[in-house]
Amino acid sequence: MTQPTTTVPSTAAPSNPDGQRASRSNRQFLGRVWALLVGIKDALVLAFMLLFFGLVFMILSSRPNAAAIHDGALVLDLDGAISEQPADIDPFAALSGPQIRQYRARDIIAALDAAKDDDRVKAIVLDLDRFLGGGQVTLTRVGDAVRAARAAGKPVYAYATAYGDDAYSLAANASEIWVAPMGGMAFAGPGGSRLYYKGLMDKLGIAANVYRVGTFKSAVEPYIRNDQSPEARRMNQAYADSVWEQWQRHIAAARPKAQASAFAADPAGALDAAAGDLAKATVAMGLADKIGERIDFERHVASVAGTGPSDQRPWDYAAIDLDDYVAAHEPDGDGDEIAVIPAVGTIVDGEAGAGTVGGTTVAQNILDAVAGGDAKAIVLRVDSPGGSALASEEIRQALLTARAKGLPVVVSMANVAASGGYWIATASDRIIAEPDTITGSIGVFGVIPTFKGSLDKLGIGADGVATTPLSGQPDLYGGTNEQFDRIVQATVEDIYRRFVGIVADNRKLPVARVRELGEGRVWSGGAARQLGLVDAFGGLDDAVAAAAKLAKLDPDAVHTRYYEPQPDPFAEMIAALRSGEEDDSSARGMIAIMTQRRQAMLANAFADIDRLATSGGAVQAECLECRPAIALTAPARSSPGLWARVVAAFAG
């Protein structure tokens, strides 16, 4: 029987040639887009690799090269400042343009010392056209190293368009001093105006609640006066006169024929005698030897040190780069170790990089030297106006720990070791300073701003409730009350008593005598030694030798190892990339030299205002008047200190 046939309807789509072509076209388009994206990716990877290796090449090329030393003149092109410890580089600021360079004093001194006996070094050049200065103690050390090289038979040539006090303190040690025809010299000496904000604060309705101990603790005067007090004037004049006398003495020793004192006393008279030509006036007064343009100076150096590699520039002299030379003369590690701990900059709580004394950082460096077992003694190199009292005590306790472990501790004072800088020095077996060192300032203070007057001027009131006398204190809106003020003042006085006590104990002086020497008064190193605050005069090398002797070691058979923060590799990379860029826009003439320090006053004014706004009432053992006219260290962040914590606790 035949089965019926069942027809199943077809479900296949009807043939559509146009649709198939469109589909193939879309696939081809997407393929081309994908290929383009892959190509872009490959190009970006290649570009990144080229950039990466280019950066590596630039960094390696810019790093010091010890093998690059050749016959010629060792060049100290000091287009920046000299510091005991260069501050950390801000990588973000470095990205925006070349930064002011800081040269490490010990590197320059080591290079000059090595150059004395190096036959490849035919001469030494001091290029001071853009030199920003340094502390007087540091400059004296470098100047002595220059003079020692000259005494060893190396001709030393100095050149600048215009010389100020700091530049001339180095140049005076040279064999020949050149000055540009349109340049000259101007010696201002220490001193100058400081800003006082009491009138402005009254107009703004801001009250500075000041808690201090010390008749001469004038750090807070800008917030409570419109001028300096008679006591502050007397103190400031005394140490300015002492520093100026020392400067003149150094110049006279380095260049006996120079009439520096007479020129500084009557520069207009010297100018009149030279018919208005300042460069000729400097030569007539024995301050400079020759007048010439830079190209003439370079030809003269080339005649002694040899010409450079380029035949197209026959006036160029063969130059030895300072960084290369320093890299080629790294100190050896023979003999027993003396640990050197730099404490450079404002003292703050917690950790901090180079150029700022972080209490925790420096204390840890001291304890690392103790725990390592290799150090036989410790030298604390202090160049600080002080800062946080708590951080100062943290460092002092670390030094006491070192002494308890049998390690002698010697303090070496550089340009300034005042207030908190002297506090940390009291944990030592011996204190060595220079006659130029600024020290003392034994006193403490705290400042808390309140803004009731400001709010009143704006028609804003402040009111609330309290359960105790300290509720809401310190009241930044309504002002502090009597009980809070009494507590803070009592705490400041207690810290001052501790300060006086540790000084009396370390210096073997009666407490009453320390109080007479204290009161925040600043002393020169020379006066401090006479008063018993310092044991001896000398530099860092003398401190190392003293530490070796205390450890019963031969001072000639020891080496130093520095325990200090290491530079940030990223910041160093950025700085290396910008290192070849010169800031030719900086002024070099006489007027620029004369106004340079005065411009720094504005920066210090902003720092004063920032300190009032952000200090949080932290108890400070700091000598603000001891700060350098041109900041050579990193700006200090605000310290959280004791009363900052009290403020935070009361605020809730």
CATH fold description of the largest domain = 2-enoyl-CoA Hydratase, Chain A, domain 1
State the low-pLDDT regions, or none: 580-585, 629-652
What's the level 1 CATH class of the largest domain? Answer: Alpha Beta
- Care to count the β-strands? 22
Give the CATH superfamily of the largest domain. Answer: 2-enoyl-CoA Hydratase, Chain A, domain 1
Please give the alpha-carbon distance between the first and last residues: 104 Å
Strand content: 15-25%
Characterize the biggest β-sheet: 8 strands, mixed
Domain count: the total is 2
Q: What is the global morphology?
A: globular
- Level of helix content? 40-55%
Mean pLDDT over all positions? 84
Number of helices: 24
The CATH architecture of the largest domain can be given as Alpha-Beta Complex
Helix-strand category? alpha/beta
Q: Calculate Rg over CA atoms.
A: 32 Å
